[in-house]
Every structure is written in C-alpha cells, then in structure tokens.
C-alpha cells in the first residue's frame, strides 16, 4: 500500500516535533492495523491482510516500510529523495481465481528490486501545501514475470492542523511486455486449455490511481492512520480477458494505530 511522501513527513511533524536525537539512535514511527486488498492483479475478490507501515530514520537515512514494499531514502534530510527499493507482488493461482481463469497457469509471487528518485517542495511551516513527486522502477528477480514496472506519483498536503493531517495523491504505472503478458496476456496454448480468447499484449501503461491518507495524533506518541485508494486499468490492460472476467477497478484500504519514537 503506497503512502505519499507528504504523509510520511506529516507523521513526523504533527503536534510538536520531538527533540532532535543527537545520540545517533533510530527514530521514526510505526503503524500496525488491518487492510482490505484485491487477491491478485485484476481480481474482483478481496481479502483481509495486515496494514503495516514504518519510517525508521538513522544518521540522515530513512527506511520506509509499506506492507510488502520497502525503500531507503539516502537523503532523508533533503528535499531530494533517492535510494534502493524492493517489493513482493502477490501470487495468482487457481484457488483464488474463478472459472475459467482458474484454468490459466499459476503466477508465483514476484520479488522485485530497483530504486526510486523524488523531490518535494513548497508548503508552510507545518507542511501544508507541500507537493512531492517520485518515480519508482522495479525489476523482477524471482522468475515470476521477468519484467519491469515503473510507477510515477504526485502527492499534495491538503491539511495540517495541530492534530490532524490529510493528503491526496495520484499515480500512473507502466509495465514492460513480459510483465503485461504474465498478468494480462493469454497465449494460444492457454486459450485452448481454458476456453478464453487468446490475447497478445505488449509493453504500455497499466493503470491510473488516486488515494487519500488521513491521520490523527492523540498525543506526541500515539495516533491513528487511515488510507484508501483506487486504481483503474487502462490502455491494453483494460481490454484483457483477465480483467474482463474480473474487474477494471481495484480498491485498497487500511487503518492502523501509529506510534512515534
């Protein structure tokens, strides 16, 4: 579950900022709760799962954990963001998919490695009005889809009050041919086995998405964080039989308790 840079900053600045940590120790926040998410790429069935986030800052670097995704901001004290990123993508198997999609080959969970770059600017003393852009590029290294996925995101800090913050964001993602064919293509052999029409797909845009992140601090330590987002498959991905037999719209939501330290 993505969370924009503006929301990450808000969790560190809502209410009064804590005294700087000069000991060289780790500081930041963790959030734990529950989430609802699609079972696989294109699914119209949803499943419950953990909602786990964390920002852990140490010596000017920040580890950002977002469920099955993680990245390291090597310039945490700078408007520029840059560093490595990893992700685990959900599997798709015949137990999750309805007939006749269940006749398609299983797609195992993918482990993706890459990096990201971003920049944030603007905003008042509390951070309201801050705008952030970032681009993440990930390559499968687990022989699941063998492709590359790139996601561009923009976020905006709408509200910064003493205890409450609200951010909005939007994303667009791109997949190479190997990625798109794995999740959205149907080969002639697969068509013969499943009865689904063959569908050849190449590289291109996969989806567009938007979401909002809301947070409330009870005190300097404890708070509540909520996130809801929706994406829609576009271009050739939306015309895939996999999507036609499932859903063009994917919704994710989650809520968790936050702790700052």
TrEMBL record:
Q: Which UniProt keywords apply?
A: Cell outer membrane, Membrane, Signal
**Keyword Kinase annotated:** no
Q: Its GO CC terms?
A: cell outer membrane
Region of interest called Disordered, as start-end residue ranges on this chain: 1-28
Which superkingdom heads the taxonomic lineage of this protein's source? Bacteria
Tell me the InterPro entries matching this sequence: MipA
Main location as per UniProt: membrane
Where found? Cell outer membrane
Family statement drawn from the similarity comment of this UniProt entry: Belongs to the MipA/OmpV family.
Q: What's the protein name?
A: Outer membrane scaffolding protein for murein synthesis (MipA/OmpV family)
């Amino acid at each position: 579950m993505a969370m924009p840079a503006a929301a990450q900053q808000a969790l560190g600045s809502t209410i009064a900022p804590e005294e700087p940590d000069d000991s060289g120790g780790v500081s930041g926040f963790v959030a734990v709760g529950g989430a609802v998410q699609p079972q696989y790429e294109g699914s119209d069935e949803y499943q419950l799962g953990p909602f786990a986030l964390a920002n852990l800052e140490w010596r000017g670097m920040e580890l950002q954990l977002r469920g099955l995704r993680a990245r390291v901001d090597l310039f945490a004290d700078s408007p520029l963001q840059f560093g490595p990123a990893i992700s685990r993508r959900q599997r798709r198997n015949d137990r999750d998919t309805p007939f006749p999609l269940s006749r398609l080959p299983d797609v195992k969970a993918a482990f993706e490695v890459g990096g990201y770059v971003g920049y944030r600017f603007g905003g008042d003393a509390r951070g309201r009005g801050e705008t952030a852009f970032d681009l993440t590029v990930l390559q499968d290294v687990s022989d699941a889809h063998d492709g590359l996925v790139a996601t561009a995101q923009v976020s905006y800090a709408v509200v910064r009050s003493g205890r409450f913050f609200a951010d909005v964001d939007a994303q667009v993602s791109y997949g190479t041919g190997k990625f798109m064919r794995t999740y959205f293509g149907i080969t002639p052999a697969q068509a013969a086995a499943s009865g689904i029409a063959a569908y050849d797909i190449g590289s291109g845009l996969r989806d567009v998405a938007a979401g909002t992140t809301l947070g409330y601090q009870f005190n300097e330590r404890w708070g509540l964080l909520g996130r809801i987002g929706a994406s829609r498959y576009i271009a050739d991905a939306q015309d895939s039989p996999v999507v036609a037999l499932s859903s063009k719209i994917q919704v994710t939501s989650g809520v968790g308790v936050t702790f700052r330290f």
